[in-house]
Design a protein that fits this description.
alpha+beta; 9-stranded antiparallel beta sheet; 8 helices; 35% helix; globular
Length: 276
């Protein structure tokens, strides 16, 4: 009797996959504890790669990190004193001062209604454009006996932002106080005019004014007081110059004081001389 052929059934893909999964689970379950520990250790040692979404970046090497420049040292009193101009810098006929000029109280001590213009008059009379300062301050006075003029020169350690604000205020004055009327402490009327003065291109920021006060003596004689005012910031330091006299004054003397003073201050700062 003929034998019936046996049918061989092929495993379906689903059956093969199931069998593979079972074998894999079986293999994992039969790992010894030591083998399992090694597998976990190997997995933990694989470094993860940062993705664009994570925003991770490699740490920068410290030896390539930029180093901030050292902060400039504060101007000392000895340095400020050494940076002053002298009578020798300006030449004849300049000499050390013999005291405050008579026109300071007689003409310059005056007031007016405008707050900005009054602030200017007060600053000129006090010879102080910047107000009180907790830093170094050195002052020298020089006289020109020939023209009855007087120059006061100052070196100051001030906050740079405060200095720049004062310079901006000085720059605005020809527009706000170009001409105005002031009254002196003795009741004399002064017609005041001011304009921007030309300064040499030195320092980091600068501003200059020429102020003219025209009035009369008690006897009716005309008077003219002329003042040159200059302020220059040199880094974190400042110089201020006031040159005044009855009649005209030499703008060249103001420019020479500014140029010489900025150069001397810069040299002292660069060399670190007399740093005490």
């Amino acid at each position: 009797m003929p034998r019936t052929p046996t049918r061989v059934l092929a495993a379906s893909p689903r059956t093969a996959g199931t069998r593979k999964a079972v074998l894999t689970r079986t293999a994992l379950l039969t790992l010894t504890p030591l083998s399992a520990l090694g597998l976990l250790t190997l997995t933990a040692c694989v470094p993860s790669t940062p993705t664009a979404q994570s925003g991770a970046h490699p740490a920068a090497s410290s030896k390539h990190s930029p180093t901030a420049p050292p902060a400039p040292r504060v101007l000392t009193q000895a340095q400020a004193q050494a940076a002053l101009v002298t009578a020798n810098d300006l030449g004849d006929p300049w000499t050390p001062t013999q005291g405050a000029a008579t026109w300071r109280d007689g003409v310059l001590k005056a007031t007016t209604e405008s707050p900005d213009c009054r602030r200017l008059l007060d600053a000129l009379y006090a010879d102080d454009l910047f107000g009180a300062s907790g830093g170094a301050r050195a002052v020298v006075g020089l006289d020109d006996a020939m023209d009855q003029a007087q120059l006061r020169y100052q070196v100051l350690a001030l906050n740079a932002a405060d200095v720049d604000r004062t310079l901006a205020w000085l720059r605005s004055l020809p527009g706000t106080c170009g001409t105005f009327t002031a009254v002196t402490a003795h009741g004399a009327v002064q017609n005041v005019a001011l304009r921007e003065a030309d300064l040499p291109p030195v320092g980091d920021a600068r501003e200059g004014l020429r102020v003219t006060l025209r009035g009369q003596t008690p006897d009716g004689d005309p008077t003219v007081l002329t003042l040159d005012v200059a302020a220059v910031r040199v880094g974190g330091d400042t110089i201020a110059v006031t040159l005044g006299g009855m009649g005209d004054v030499s703008a060249d003397a103001t420019r020479a004081a500014v140029q010489t003073g900025v150069r001397r201050l810069s040299e002292i700062r660069r060399s670190g001389r007399v740093e005490v």
